[in-house]
Design brief:
alpha/beta, eight-stranded parallel sheet, 9 helices, 15% strand, globular
């Protein structure tokens, strides 16, 4: 067998193995999501089966396609350029895909983001200025069909400077602004990233508990039910813990798609 043919066959076999792993990883994570939901002790959120958002950051659209073909519909991206490119590449082959934007959103990139086919939810509204910008540009977007855009308010529960999110002290004011002043946006819940360094042997993640407290305050102030206020918390390293505490939306990337590879920093 020539060296060229051997390398080709090796590449084909490697691709087939990778494709199989993606499907197996998705199935395993779905099982873990269901198992964690069954362990919930809180009476809240029990009517909402946790939503799995598969995060394909730095991974090719072909990987998204494979996971979509296996039945997954909600996908998330951290970078505007990446979600724009993938959403256009996959709009015909993944007609009912639902895109979540879960990264830091700069005001000058809002218009570009809102042009994404099948944009379902922006999880990272962290200021009145950003909310106003999204509200204004959504109604003038070619994707606008008369329906408000679903958004979440991101809260910096760990008070880390490098993380985005409104402070816990100002969270209620931002939620009120979105609900009252932004008629083209629909508030669906609260989101946090939380600290990556928490030792779970010491107990629940305090950042997650803080987000749940914020949710309770939102429900009380605006007379909303538990199902009206989603909770987006938990990623690959802690989504099971987050679900047990009450998360209704988990963002899982590397556990499904494998370790990320950065050729250059996306934007």
């Amino acid at each position: 067998m020539s060296g060229g043919i051997y390398k080709f066959l090796k590449r084909v076999m490697s691709t087939a193995s990778s494709n199989s792993n993606l499907v197996e990883n998705l199935s395993s994570v779905k099982d873990r999501v269901a198992s964690s939901a069954a362990k919930r002790t809180s009476k809240d959120n029990l009517t909402l089966l946790p939503r799995l958002v598969c995060v394909g950051k730095t991974k090719p659209a072909s990987d998204i396609q494979l996971v979509y073909n296996a039945g997954q519909r909600h996908f998330g991206e951290n970078y505007v350029n990446e979600i724009v490119e993938k959403s256009h590449d996959l709009q015909e082959t993944c007609p009912d895909i639902k895109w979540h934007f879960i990264g830091r959103l700069q005001s000058n990139k809002v218009g570009k983001l809102l042009g994404c086919p099948n944009l379902s939810l922006i999880e990272t509204i962290d200021s009145e200025k950003l909310a106003d910008r999204v509200d204004k540009l959504w109604v003038s977007s070619e994707r606008y069909s008369g329906t408000p855009l679903d958004v979440m308010v991101q809260i910096n529960t760990s008070n880390e400077e490098q993380k985005s999110g409104v402070s816990t002290e100002k969270a209620l004011d931002l939620v009120e602004h979105v609900m009252v002043k932004c008629e083209n946006l629909h508030f669906t819940g609260v989101m946090t990233i939380g600290s990556f360094s928490h030792d779970y042997s010491t107990g629940p993640n305090p950042d997650f508990l803080t987000l749940l407290q914020c949710k309770e305050k939102v429900m009380e102030k605006f007379s909303l039910s538990s199902d009206d206020v989603e909770v987006s918390m938990g990623m690959s390293n802690d989504f099971e813990h987050a679900i047990e505490l009450g998360s209704t939306n988990v963002r899982v990337g590397s556990t499904i798609f494998g370790a990320r590879e950065y050729a250059s920093k996306p934007s």
